[in-house]
Specification:
By secondary structure, the chain is of the alpha/beta class. It contains eight helices and five strands, in the order E-H-E-H-H-E-H-E-H-H-H-E-H.
């Protein structure tokens, strides 16, 4: 079976990490979370430039100088694993890249993914549940989202993944637990 790179996309707090870890354990995928891979370096870079280490939304320095570096690093690590024949699940929002229709084809070209299957799994969630979960996790980086909740929700609703030449599947993660049967049916991978 050719290795798969699964782009796990969705809003902050939607449960991407929960679903990503579940997929990794159920299907023996390598699990790469952008926050775990990059947050220490990103936080230090932001602090060195006089910004809060937790501020990403609305920070011009992050958007212009750091964000692409984070994603390039994540994708380089993923590609290393794919070249070893290991499937990878990427836990990162990728929101800023949704409008780049040729995003996946450019990655195929860059990394020579001739024998790699890219797939998107979009995690959706009811916005009332999302707010509860984000309040429960109480992360400092969510402060700006709560300050303009309606704007945050509108931003999610307006961001549609426009990537071409890739299958985009969706799973609703509004329930208190992930339905494994639905997850298996949605992904339809061989175990």
């Amino acid at each position: 079976m050719e290795p798969t790179i699964l782009f796990l996309i969705g809003a902050a707090g939607s449960g991407k990490s929960t679903i990503g870890k579940l997929i990794a354990s159920e299907y023996n995928f390598c699990y790469l979370d952008k926050d775990i891979v990059c947050n220490r370096f990103t936080g230090l870079l932001l602090e060195l430039q006089g910004h809060s280490p937790h501020e990403r939304d609305g920070c011009v320095f992050y958007r212009e100088r750091v964000m692409d570096l984070e994603y390039q690093t994540l994708l380089d690590i993923a590609n290393f694993n794919l070249q070893l024949g290991l499937s990878v699940v990427l836990d990162a929002p990728f929101l800023s890249y949704f409008s780049e229709r040729n995003f996946i084809n450019e990655l195929r070209k860059k990394y020579d993914w001739q024998n790699v299957k890219p797939l998107v799994l979009q995690v959706t969630i009811d916005f009332a549940v999302l707010k509860e979960r984000m309040q429960a996790r109480a992360l400092e980086r969510d402060t700006s989202k709560f300050a303009d909740w309606d704007g945050f929700v509108k931003g999610i609703q307006e961001k549609r993944c426009l990537w071409e030449d890739i299958e985009i599947k969706q799973i609703d993660n509004s329930a208190s637990t992930v339905d494994l049967q639905t997850l298996h049916e949605t992904l339809s991978f061989d175990k």
